[in-house]
Amino acid sequence: MLKNKSFVKRTRKGNIVRTVKEHYLRDDINCGLENCADAVCKEQTTKPLSAEPRSSTQWGAHYLVPDTNAFVNQIDIFERPIINNVVVLSTVLDELRGLSMATYNRVRAIVRETERHWFVFSNEHHRDTFVDRIPGESPNDRNDRAIRAAGKWLTGHLQAAGITPVLVTNDEDNLRKAKGEGIAACRMDECLGVYSEHPELLDMMGS
Question: What is the pLDDT of residue 189?
């Protein structure tokens, strides 16, 4: 599926030109779960997410889906080997590339560690998770909405496998909206509370 975006801009010489940007949306992007029963996912080979991730009383078996600021502010924690089965949204990677190349590269390095079970979900190119920017909407608000759209799709998609994607964000507005849309979501300190055997993680947040 092809979507066209038109932009009008003024050149240095003062001329007005219209630019058309093509954005391809696909229906063959998988969720990353190693034994997903979905027909599309079965055909894919890159499926690093474990079918038996960490479980908690609050969410049961779950994956973490951090927003951009979670990575920017707490990348040292995410680099700890205990933080596994993380879904990295392409929206988040795009934001990281613009905000902090150092953090972007550190996240990419973790994704390459296969034993960590991290997966980049291309929500910006998925037909069911891409969202257009609404007129008057800020880029940040649009990206937050894209993150929630991906979280909602993953919630429904992973339900059959008994796994809950949990959005990790300290943005109170995004947190409230996510919960209102039926998405499991928590602040970073709540997320780390699941790792009770590693109290040093919470200490790292305050350092």
Answer: 95
